[in-house]
Structure formats: structure tokens, C-alpha cells
Amino acid sequence: MRPDHDNDAVEFDDEEYKSKTQVKNEMHALQDLGMRLLDLKADVMAALPISERLRKALEETRRIKSNNALKRHRQFIGKLMRDEDIEPLQKAVDRQDSSSAEYNRIFHQLERWRERLIGEGDEALQAYLQAYPSADIQYLRQLIRNSRKELELQKPPASSRKLFRYLREQSELAE
User: Fold this and answer.
1) What is d(CA 19, CA 38) in angstroms, rounded to the nearest whole number?
2) What is the pLDDT of residue 3?
3) Which residue, 92, 132, 91, is CA-closest to 114?
4) Where does a domain end: 96, 118, 142?
5) CB contact at 8 A, 90 and 43
6) Which of 2, 61, 85, 169 is most buried by its number of CB atoms within 10 A?
7) Which sign does the torsion angle of CA 97, 101, 105, 111 carry?
8) One-letter-per-residue 3-state SS of 45-111
């Protein structure tokens, strides 16, 4: 016969209770994000708002060759990631990941800027300079002029690509 435990029932607050599986999934997501941080460029990595301890752990990851050691270190990075603000880190990773919606949004925005700068002239240039005041106006004008010449002469779009790269650099600096 089972004793009556109705009076001893524990009530869980749905907002605070997490199942063991949910906690494990969150930890794996933090570990994955930490490992994706390793794929970032050095200048982007340096600008991230992370603790010095996490920064050193990420640098140390590159030296580890053993799979078992890498697995343990990955767990350690996940543990360190618990104390970090995840949103700016996720945003930085998404900006570099070509499969993310954020990357595609920025890519299309830069393409529109390039097309406007080549097609519309000074109006678009002034609008761009208002949006990105740190841009080098002389270099930008040179890239636009060369891109227009390539279009007229039906040459390969080398300057247009350079213009796009420069627009991307300015976009990354503005963030």
C-alpha cells in the first residue's frame, strides 16, 4: 500500500523549472556558439565584448590536437559562456555566417548601396556619407568612377567588387 503523499507534493513554477534535457540542450548551444567564435576574423574577435578568461580559452583551443582534450575544452568554453552576454556574440557570428538571415540582410543592403552609388551618382553618395561618415570620399568616388567605366566598356567587374568590399568594411566599422 502506498502512503498518501498529496500533502507533500512539490509545485514547480513553469517559468523557472527546466528539465535536464533542456539544460543540456542550452549547454550544447553555448558550446557550439563558443566554437563558432573561433571562425571569426581576428579583428572581429578582438572587438567582441567577452571576458579575458574566455578570450584566452578560445585562443588556447587552437593549440589542442587531441579529440578528448578538445571535447573537455569545449565543455569548459560552454561553462565560461554562461557568464557572458550571448546576444552580441550571436550577432557577431551571424554577421559572418553566410547561412544566417542577418548575413543575408546585410549583404543585400550592401548590394543596394553599391547599385545606388553606381547608378544614381552624387545623391546616393551624399546619402551614403550621411549613413557612414567615416568613409573616405576620394577613394569612394574613385571606386564608383572605375565601376561605371567597367559597365560602359563591358569589362569584368573588378572595381565593382572592390567597391562592395569597401562598403562591407565600412559597415563592419560602423557596428
Assistant:
1) 30
2) 52
3) 132
4) 96
5) no
6) 61
7) positive
8) HHHCCCCHHHHHHHHHHCCCCCHHHHHHHHHHHHHHHCCCCHHHHHHHHHHHCCCCHHHHHHHHHHH
CA distance 58 to 167: 29
**How far is 172 from 40, CA to CA, in rounded Å?**
13
- Which residue in this structure is represented by grid cell 550621411? 130
User: What are 160's three cell numbers?
Assistant: 565593382
Together in a domain, 125 and 69? no
Contacts of 44 (CB under 8 A, 6+ apart): 92, 95, 96, 172
**Is 2 contained in some domain?**
no
DSSP conformational letter for 41: -
List of the chain residues with pLDDT < 70: 1-15, 97-100, 175
Q: What CA–CA distance (Å, rounded) separates 40 from 48? A: 10
Which residues form the domain of 53?
Answer: 20-96
